Amino acid sequence: MLAKFVAAKMQNKFWIVSYDNVTPIKKLYSGFRSVVYNVGYTAREMRTGKEVMFFSPHLQVTNLIGPVQQIGKIREAA
Fold first, then answer.
1. Which of 30, 33, 47, 54 places its Cα 20 to 30 Å from the Cα of 15?
2. Complete edge-to-edge strand list for the sheet that includes strand 47-55
3. Alpha helix locations (H) across 1-78?
4. Are 12 and 18 in contact (CB under 8 A)?
């Protein structure tokens, strides 16, 4: 369903989305490149969480930099 929406509405757009690293989200975006990373949370308590970032097909993507820790390589679409 998501893939059809993206194909119809976002075909020539550049986009990045980031979510909690959970199975339903990974299944939903399985047709897109992704990378998992650690990010620090400090709103209520200081902790590290895993998130996953997905990229549009034509976007040039490099390894992550900044206050995040990339886990593994950027994965190609399933």
1. 47
2. 16-20, 47-55, 33-41, 68-75
3. 2-9, 23-28
4. no
Q: How far apart are CA 65 and CA 78, in angstroms?
A: 24
- Local confidence pLDDT in tens for the 78 residues of the chain: 666 776 677 778 899 999 999 999 998 888 899 999 988 766 677 777 789 999 998 899 998 888 888 998 999 987
Domain spans in the chain, listed from the N-terminal domain onward: 2-75
DSSP H helix total and E strand total for the chain: 2, 4
Integer Cα distance of 31 and 44 in angstroms: 34
